[in-house]
C-alpha cells in the first residue's frame, strides 16, 4: 500500500479490525519513510448484473438509484430506515443470486414492488402508479383490488 503523504511503498499494518457489520476490514497503517499514519478499508467487490432498460440500453446497477426509488415511494410513511435497508438488501441478494450478467429493469421493478407490498401498501401503490404507468382510473382500481 502506497503512503498517501509521501507516496512511499514501504508501509506497515499497525492494527486490523473487522467492521461492526462484518462487511469490511479497517487497517491502521504507518509509513516507514515519513512515519505518518493512515487508515485503509477493504470491502468485497460485488459484481451486480447490468440492468437492461425497456429501450434496450444497458446501465450499471446503482444501489443509490434503487434506494432513492424506494425511499421516494416511502416518503412520509411510517417505515423505519432499518426496514428499508433490509428490503434493499433482499433485492440485491436476489439480483446477485440470479447469477445473470444482465437483468431486465422489469425484473428489478417487480422485486421492488414485492418488497414495498410487504413494507407499506400506500408506498406500493405510489411506486406501482409510476412503474406501471397507470393511464386511467380502472388500472389504478385493479392495483387496489390486487392488494385486497
Jot down its keywords.
single chain, 148 residues, alpha+beta, 2 domains, three-stranded antiparallel beta sheet, 5 helices, 44% helix
The helix/strand series, from N terminus to C terminus, equals EEEEEHHEHHH
Helix fraction? 40-55%
Strand order, main sheet: write it out: 1-2-3
Q: How would you classify the helix and strand content by structural class?
A: alpha+beta
Could you tell me the strand content as a percent range?
15-25%
Whole-number count of domains: 2
Arithmetic mean of pLDDT: 88
Number of helices: 5
Low-pLDDT residue intervals, each spanning 5 or more residues = none
Largest sheet, described in full? 3 strands, antiparallel
What is the straight-line distance between the termini?
Answer: 57 Å
How many strands in all? 6
Q: How would you portray this structure in words?
A:
The chain contains five helices and six strands, in the order βββββααβααα. The mean pLDDT is 88. The longest helix has 17 residues. The chain is an alpha+beta fold. The protein folds into two domains: 33 residues; 98 residues. It is elongated. 44% of the residues lie in helices and 21% in strands. The chain has a three-stranded antiparallel sheet with strand order 1-2-3, with no helix packed on it. α3 packs antiparallel against α4. β2 and β3 form a beta hairpin.
Amino acid at each position: 500500500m502506497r503512503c498517501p503523504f509521501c507516496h512511499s511503498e514501504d508501509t506497515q499494518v499497525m492494527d486490523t479490525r473487522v467492521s461492526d457489520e462484518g462487511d469490511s476490514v479497517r487497517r491502521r497503517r504507518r509509513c516507514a519513510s515519513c512515519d505518518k499514519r493512515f487508515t485503509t478499508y477493504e470491502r468485497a467487490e460485488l459484481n451486480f448484473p447490468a440492468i437492461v432498460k425497456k429501450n434496450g440500453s444497458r446501465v450499471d446497477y446503482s444501489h443509490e438509484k434503487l434506494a432513492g426509488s424506494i425511499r421516494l415511494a416511502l416518503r412520509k410513511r411510517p417505515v423505519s430506515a432499518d426496514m428499508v435497508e433490509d428490503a434493499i438488501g433482499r433485492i440485491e441478494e436476489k439480483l446477485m443470486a440470479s447469477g445473470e450478467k444482465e437483468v431486465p429493469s422489469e425484473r428489478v421493478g417487480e422485486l421492488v414492488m414485492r418488497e414495498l407490498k410487504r413494507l407499506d401498501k400506500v408506498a406500493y401503490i405510489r411506486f406501482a402508479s409510476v412503474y406501471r404507468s397507470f393511464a386511467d382510473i380502472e388500472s389504478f382500481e385493479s392495483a387496489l383490488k390486487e392488494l385486497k
